[in-house]
């Protein structure tokens, strides 16, 4: 009887550990977004998890972003362009299906704002800035709203007047 109870408890522990391991840590992925292009190990770790478990538009948006970040970690110019183009295509697909998603527009804004001009992916900066300024306050998740606002405030993308509107 003791052995049976022990086996049942052990099975539950293993089952819960497996379920926990199969979830995305979206809060960490969001937090690390600003350094994903600089830290190859972190980028690969998050990309692997996102490729396996991303199920929502936002998760797939971060997956697209981390694909683009991988371009900076590859020495092969063909791989660089492949990572970038695939990530861009994935992100644009998510945004076209979810055009009113603030976080997807934030992801695109951050990428377009900082990537080199020669990649030709800067067309939506002003539209995304305006959209985020007008809609960030509608996010229900206060932690995400604060994280996005803090990043945008530090990025010098917005004027002081725009930051006032963004902060509401």
Mean pLDDT: 90
**Rg, alpha carbons:** 19 Å
**Anisotropy-based shape:** globular
The number of strands is 0
Span between N and C termini? 61 Å
- Helix and strand succession? HHHHHHHHH
Helix content: over 70%
Our estimate of the beta-strand percent is under 5%
Class derived from helix and strand content: mainly alpha
Please state the oligomeric state of the protein chains shown.
single chain
Number of helices: 9
Describe the structure.
The chain is an all-alpha fold. The chain has 9 helices and no strands. The N terminus is likely disordered.
List keywords for this structure.
single chain; about 170 residues; mainly alpha; 9 helices; globular; disordered N terminus
Strands, helices and their partners?
Elements: H1 2-21, H2 26-32, H3 40-53, H4 57-70, H5 77-97, H6 102-114, H7 125-135, H8 142-154, H9 160-166
Helix pairs in contact: 3-4, 4-5, 4-6, 6-7, 7-9
